[in-house]
Amino acid sequence: MESAIDTHLQCPRTLSRRVPEDYRPPFPIWVARVGEDVTRVVMGYFGVQYRGEEHRAEAWATLRAITDGFALADGPGGWDVTHHVDAQGYDTLVAAAYWRDAGTTQRWLARPEIAAWWDAPERLSAAVGVFREVLSPGVDRFETLYPFTDRLPGIGGVLDDVSDQVEEHAYWGAMRDRIPRSQTDRMGPSGELAATSDPARGGRVVVRGHENVALIRSGQDWAGIPAEEQELYLEAIEPALRRAMDFLRDKGQRLGCYSNRYVRNVDLEGTPLDTTYAISFWRSLDLLERWAESHPSHLEVFVAFVGRARHVPSLRLYHEVSVVDADSQYYEYVNCHPATGLLRDAVTSDAVSSDAVRSADPPRA
């Protein structure tokens, strides 16, 4: 048993954990480990948005142009593709890509093939929208959690190793306690999301993040599990999860949720796979914790799972959580509707020009 915070990231605590030092969790769990040479990791969400079956072919061609770019030098170490329909009825394809250091991502984003594609006039005249949301948290600003040690999804798939069993889990507050920065920093938010132009006018809009935006990817994988477990999950647990995800999508704004996408993995032909996850942006970790610990929509999921957990031992659940500083966030939306991603909650910024924001190198190394 060891701490979820790796030894090279530990420091004297000025903020206490939520449990006593002699706490021992009731079941085993693991986290991904990152090498001491890594200072930042990168999560990039590259999306294509369309409405109407007549635009489906163009949308998939656009997505394949994005994923073809992943094969270039300095491309991501791992990626997956998802589909969902948002609250406004738009089909959305998202390629989630991961790098184990920000410098590599910067070089890839700056490649002529990548930069020219995103800046091309065709992006503004296309019948589909595209967006990219790129976050680069420092290694002291994110945590992972897995009840398994093989085939780690998401950011875990590009990191270096897996821990031994860790202490900080199975209690409210454990998510925060696994983030190294929580030893000395409450990671409270400051500032607002700022858009470089009015999202209602469309076109190309860049959003500047504020300090300590929280991002969670929380996944469910029922591929290949026994039929009776799959049936129990899909009929008794997943419906409660979907209701919670729809609640956050539709009504989460008043709780501090900027955007919630409940997505299903697909292959590049569009065939659904037996895995889903939520991509959820929050104003702060504190607000995410408050929803998880006390809101009826999440407690319904918690009760549904806990009451049946021993009957679905093969189900693979996981999450990764980041709390990101303002300079390490980059959000760009082209031809997207004004409620896409972080556009909905961004205020128009007259103080920062669009050209100035777009000239920055996302994400910071």
From TrEMBL:
Cofactor: heme b
Pfam families in the cross-refs: Dehydratase_hem
Region entry Disordered, spans: 181-200
Keywords: Heme, Iron, Lyase, Metal-binding
Keyword Lyase: yes
InterPro entries (alphabetical): OXD
Keyword Lyase found: yes
Top-level taxon: Bacteria
Family: Belongs to the heme-containing dehydratase family.
Protein's name in the database: Phenylacetaldoxime dehydratase family protein
Lineage: Bacteria, Bacillati, Actinomycetota, Actinomycetes, Pseudonocardiales
